Amino acid sequence: MPKVLIIGSGGVGRVVAHKCAQVPEVFTEIMLASRNISKCNTVRDEIMEKSGRTILTAKVDADNVQELVSLMKEFKPDLAINVALPYQDLSIMDACLEAGVNYLDTANYEPPESAHFEYSWQWAYKDKFKEKGITAVLGCGFDPGVSNIFSSYAQKNLFDSISTIDILDCNAGNHGHPFATNFNPEINIREVTQTVRHWENGKWVESPPILEPESIHFGFDYPVVGNKESYLLYHEELESLIKNIKGLRRIRFWMTFSENYLTYLRVLKDVGMTRIDPVDYENTKVIPLKLLKLLLPDPASLGVNYTGKTVIGNIISGVKDGRERSVYIYNICDHAEAFKEVGAQAVSYTTGVPAMIGAMLILQKKWNGAGVFNVEEFDPNPFMDLLNKHGLPWKLEEYTGKLPE
Ligand code: NDP
Hints:
With 405 residues, the protein is an alpha/beta fold. The protein has a domain at 146-343: Dihydrodipicolinate Reductase, domain 2 (2-Layer Sandwich). The protein is 36% helix and 27% strand. The protein is built from 14 helices and 18 strands. β8 (196-200) and β9 form a beta hairpin. α1 runs parallel beside α2 (37-51), α1 (11-21) packs across α13 (346-363) and α13 crosses α14 (380-389). The longest helix is centred in the last third of the chain and has 18 residues, at 346-363. The mean pLDDT is 96.
């Protein structure tokens, strides 16, 4: 009787809980846990009202390995889904090892004191998970997550060899606030203020951060939402995809930003509010970005008035049967529809649904193996089928446009 423990009750945790509750034949028992049990109980009550299903809730501090282990030994989950902050990744992995519980997350571990966006810390657990005979799946949201699966699906089904991948992430939604981030502001702002990198001809190529006048960007004509300025950005899935997609010449990641968002962020950066080193304020150490997080709207609260859509997908080029081809695989998700279904905006929805699908495949043993894996190391085909069934349908088109060289 598979049991799942979801750790983190923010926007993504809420979606994962709702989506797991929709599949009672796979998720027999569900527990939602975080430090603030009243948030967990709100989600529990909503699920009860929608589906009549009972889920369990618990208070846990995921920084505390022993507290996690006690909870796991009591509830005995088959799988723990980590949708708490990325800083907690390693303590939850440690607890899973001690309690013998499989593990899945949606983001890479970040050391609090510097921005990295790399998998080295989690990959270092490979042997320990292998010895214990349990599975850890990393980065099973949308990007990373579905963007990796689109790539491995193309490798398996559409190409003999792949030369380039461009991941294009567009949020054409409007939340009505002058400035807000769609997921944890600390992570979002660290991500977009860092030096940009992409992979080309066997090495990383650096370019200026998106806030600099020399940043690399172009207008891409997205399906349904139209032309949007898209900025070259570093994203962690590039690190695993260059290992797992064979023969890649180039891989890049692009994200849309409005001029309004960039202007706010430029000002915040210029006045020092995006710093992640502590500053002394009247004998108290304050990290400006943490203070900013406290002042900005909670991403989980944005869903209420959110309108518009996200369009996220990959343009993949290579050779099939001796002929060059390019395909565009993408999903369109509507903020208001996501909110109607699970009370969260599309950025949380597009992250939480893939986490539920990855969990389902692990519990059904369609994805198995002892060790630490990125999602593209498993069979993408059942995952792609489940995306269509559980709220993130995708489209596949031949791509005839031209991307910047
Ligand atoms: P939020 O910040 O909204 O939620 C994080 C949750 O973690 C909160 O409920 C918080 O609750 C809980 N939490 C934080 N610290 C602890 C702790 N020490 N112990 C227990 N619980 C804790 O994040 P989101 O829901 O927006 O995102 C979740 C994850 O998904 C993040 O890691 C994010 O980076 C990732 N993400 C991935 C995407 C992808 O496509 N792959 C896209 C978007 C996000 P409380 O305070 O009650 O403990």
